[in-house]
Specification:
It contains eleven helices and no strands. Helix 3 packs antiparallel against helix 5 and helix 9 packs antiparallel against helix 10. With 260 residues, it is mainly alpha-helical. The protein has one domain.
């Protein structure tokens, strides 16, 4: 009897490069193949996202240094909400942080940390949720799903790199942060931080997570989709809260704002 198209062939490697493209165009079939593997197959997508993230940092740093060489100073998000003393401190910190370490190395490390730590947080949170819903998926398979569902973020990096190369201007309003209110205040900073995380690639990520989770026939869509979506919304809100905390402490952490 011929082997099902949804079952991985034993003679093939567990990590399949064709998943990189099929996860976008045939997500259901791809995730069925992914969860059919008992071994970890999360390294390849995380490697891709790590590389695109570092490439974005390099491109962004090059654009920033080009602007600096031309006498143009790029101001950080929320700069207009700083006090005059905080703005002065930032400008002093900016002069001390124009070297390779602050323009390339630290942002690259931060980008890698976001990829790998974010994957662990999302993967384990989804695993706990699915376990509570009665899913039989093991943690390794859920981590595989979380990794492959994150590939839209790699695509986002490529789009941003292309935008930087074309415009030669840093991206000042990522996501939908351009729609944030303009009033001065702590709530405005938080809403701006939250809106900067919201874009089509995040929603795409959430959709792929749900498709991957629903590849397990033991759980229903009516219960799984709302719970997973709410879980991701909570994680994103916490991430925005961290950004809000950093911005609120800008008077003491001005150096961090140069490369965040």
């Amino acid at each position: 009897m011929a082997e099902s198209a949804l079952e991985p062939q034993s003679s093939r490697r567990p990590v399949q490069t064709e998943w990189i493209f099929s996860v976008f165009f045939h997500p259901k079939r791809t995730f069925q193949n992914i969860i059919a593997n008992e071994k970890p197959v999360w390294f390849l997508p995380l490697l891709i996202i790590s590389i695109t993230g570092v490439l974005f940092v390099i491109t962004n740093g090059w654009v920033k240094q080009s602007l600096g060489a031309g006498g143009i100073v790029e101001l950080p998000q929320y700069f207009e909400y700083y006090s005059p003393e905080q703005q002065a401190q930032f400008m002093q910190a900016l002069q001390a942080t124009t070297g390779t370490t602050f323009v390339y190395v630290l942002p690259a490390l931060l980008s890698l940390a976001k990829v790998w730590v974010g994957w662990l947080i999302v993967g384990n949170a989804i695993y706990l949720v699915l376990t509570a819903l009665g899913s039989g998926l093991k943690s390794t398979r859920v981590l595989n799903i979380a990794a492959w569902a994150a590939l839209p973020f790699g695509l986002r990096d490529l789009v941003r790199i292309l935008a930087l190369l074309i415009t030669r201007t840093p991206i000042h309003s990522p996501g939908i942060s351009g729609f944030a209110p303009t009033q001065v205040g702590a709530m405005t900073i938080f809403v701006t931080a939250l809106f900067s995380l919201l874009d089509i690639y995040l929603f795409w990520h959430i959709v792929l997570l749900n498709v991957g989770a629903l590849s397990d026939s033991k759980i229903s869509a009516t219960r799984t989709v709302p719970v997973i979506t709410i879980t991701l919304c909570i994680i994103v809100a916490l991430q925005a809260l961290i950004s809000f905390g950093i911005a609120s402490l800008a008077s003491n952490l001005s150096v961090m704002q140069v490369f965040i």
